[in-house]
Amino acid sequence: MAPCGFSFFVVLRDRGMLDGYGKGYGAAAGACVIWGVSFVATKVALQSFTPYMLLALRFAVASAFLLPTFVFFKREKLHGRDLGLFCLLGVMEPGLYFLCETRGLMYTSASVASLIIGSIPVFVMMLGAAFLKEPVRLKTGLGVALTLVGIAFLVHKDMDGSSPAASPLLGNLLIMGAALCASVYTIVSRSLSARYRPMTLTTIQAAFATAFFALLAFTESSSGMKAPPTVQALGSLLFLAFFATLAAFWLYNASLRILPASQVAVWINLIPLVTVLTARIVLDETLSWPQLAGAVLILLGVRVSTRTGDIRLPSRLLKGMQVLVR
């Protein structure tokens, strides 16, 4: 299954394949659905692998397929003026993003982590206002406030000691750091995607991450294994390599080639929904009422910030999510 998924996106030509906004939205949505499942896959894989070893193996497998394909399909020449941006891209994501995300998932639940990641569109708009001089409207400020209050609900719930996670406050702070890194990555990638193909950006990211996390893996005291790898852990590793890395990053970079960064970032909202549903099925995770309130505030904040017209909360939202609440 994995090779088929790989061949689907590497055989297709980058230029002209996603030539419409509809296809751009589809690419962004597909990437975010895969990333939603990846939170649960990471939790499963961490039962057998140490964090840095998992990341090193994930990107090494991806690079083993990407580098030959990149060479075969005529690699692009990198311009010297863009080397600084490529370095920043690699440091932010995969570098610091996956370091914070994988470490954070050791201490907090996949569901709560994905909800914090869902605040990325708001952070993207804040960075756009600061560095790209994009105007901040009243609705954007309101959306930022709602999102921050929602995150506070999630963190407060974990600070009261009732969370089953190991050290949820630390985990949530690490996930918030990952969200900030992803926001910087989105803006930088948008700039580079105007000059380079998605395959080029994805290959450089995977190669950088392999070297970065391989070095970190040597700092871990153990052999990189917590326990003998299970079938589930190995399957999760392959999913993370072929789909969450190869397919999802290619799709996301392809969407940034077509759409503004702020429009692409909106699709990050799919991640919490997919993760919560997957975590419910695979990990039997649930959300408490305070966490559900925080989730609604985060999603509403992003909706207020990114949509025009009247703001309406779907009437069936709470009813539809009651199954996820203890």
UniProtKB/TrEMBL annotation:
The keyword Transmembrane helix applies. The chain crosses the membrane at residues 25-46, 52-71, 83-99, 105-131, 138-156, 168-188, 200-219, 231-252, 264-283, 289-306. Its main location: membrane. It is a multi-pass membrane protein. GO terms for cellular component: plasma membrane. It is found in: Cell membrane. Keywords: Cell membrane, Membrane, Transmembrane, Transmembrane helix. Residues 23-155, 170-305 form the EamA domain. The keyword Lipoprotein does not apply. This is EamA domain-containing protein. It comes from Desulfacinum infernum. The lineage of its organism: Bacteria, Pseudomonadati, Thermodesulfobacteriota, Syntrophobacteria, Syntrophobacterales.
